[in-house]
Design goal:
seven-stranded parallel sheet, three-stranded antiparallel sheet, 39% helix
Length: 333
């Protein structure tokens, strides 16, 4: 029997998670709760031009495209949506802004895409349809308003300890309903604060979480960031998420340990270390500790090394096909 799954995250992690779920062949429908608080780059300029009235569409756009079954129509739409003009304006965001509404969210856009022949295996649900920014509080007590500042201080030792929304906004009711009625929720990799946990901040989402009987799984990041997840352990991830009222049933983590990664990919490990980042793979004893507390641990072999030739660097990402193999175990306990 195929399943319906709820995913929660932003424009980097959720597309990988969604594509992996689709590749399992065991999911009928994905309800993707999407962050709408990005404030950098082309998105930040759009929001400034709207005088703060427009939510961010960038994450939702990427997530929406990740729900498309590959076909010719989907490839054309992806090309259109990613097109940028001389002002660095993104065509996909322009289209979405014209048809987005505070009641239906992205339903009109999704309907039109299906009419054009795009097969969507799910729907995108903004955590709120109102405009807001993330306020980050660091361990020194300093506060920063705007998701772009989290990215800008990625190497800071003044780590983030809390977040809030300014102004406080209401949850999009379909997003709250999806969480409240879900059987399985997957929290996507990516920035814990800027992409995933922020979705639990709108008024009404906490109540939806508390009423939910869903099994919640977290896909941990492959590499740490100095200002969010420096030297994180599996238990640190659990503690962080549960501070926001979300009970973790399981973790999806790399099978490879940090030591194995550094031995196998020394150049990648060195380049990341220059940015204060480390591979987040753990020894068996750390994983056994959380298992002893009743948390299910699912390991994957989805660590992918990508050589970026133009920039003469190496990046680490999840491989969607290999992550799908881990999700098959998750969906069939």
């Amino acid at each position: 029997m195929k399943k319906e799954v709820v995913t929660v995250g932003g424009g980097t992690g959720s597309p990988i998670v969604n594509r992996a779920l689709i590749e399992t062949g065991q999911v009928d429908f994905i309800k993707a709760v999407a962050a709408v608080y990005d404030s950098g780059g082309a998105t930040g300029r759009r929001r400034l031009n709207s005088e703060g009235k427009e939510p961010a569409f960038s994450d939702a756009m990427r997530i929406l495209l990740s729900l498309a079954i590959p076909n010719q129509a989907a490839e054309v739409i992806k090309r259109w949506f990613s097109d940028r003009d001389v002002r660095d304006s993104v065509l996909g965001q322009e289209i979405i802004s014209r048809f987005f509404d505070s009641t239906g969210g992205y339903t009109k856009i999704e309907s039109d895409l299906r009419t054009l022949g795009v097969q969507l295996l799910g729907t995108v649900l903004p955590s709120s349809t109102q405009s807001a920014d993330i306020m980050f509080t660091t361990k020194s007590g300093r506060q920063y308003l705007g998701e772009h500042l989290l990215d800008g201080k990625v190497m800071s030792q003044d780590t983030v300890v809390d977040i809030d929304l300014r102004p406080q906004v209401a949850v999009h009711p379909p997003a709250a309903e999806a969480v409240a009625t879900a059987e399985t929720i997957i929290l996507a990799c990516g920035s814990p604060y800027g992409s995933m946990l922020c979705n639990f901040l709108p008024t009404g989402m906490r109540e939806a979480v508390e009423s939910s009987s869903a099994q919640v799984y977290l896909v941990t990041n492959l590499v740490s960031t100095r200002n969010e997840t420096d030297e994180f352990s599996p238990q640190d991830y659990i503690d962080l998420v549960e501070r926001f009222g979300v009970k973790i049933a399981g973790l999806v983590v790399p099978e490879m340990t940090r030591g194995q990664f550094e031995a196998q990919y020394p150049r990648a490990a060195y380049l990341y270390s220059l940015e204060g980042s480390r591979f987040l793979g753990w020894e068996d004893d750390q994983l056994h500790r959380v298992e002893a507390e009743g948390v299910r641990v699912i390991t994957h072999q989805a660590t992918r090394i990508i050589e970026v030739v133009d920039e003469k660097t190496t990046i680490v990402r999840h491989d969607a096909s290999k992550l799908a193999e881990a999700f098959k175990k998750l969906l069939n306990p």
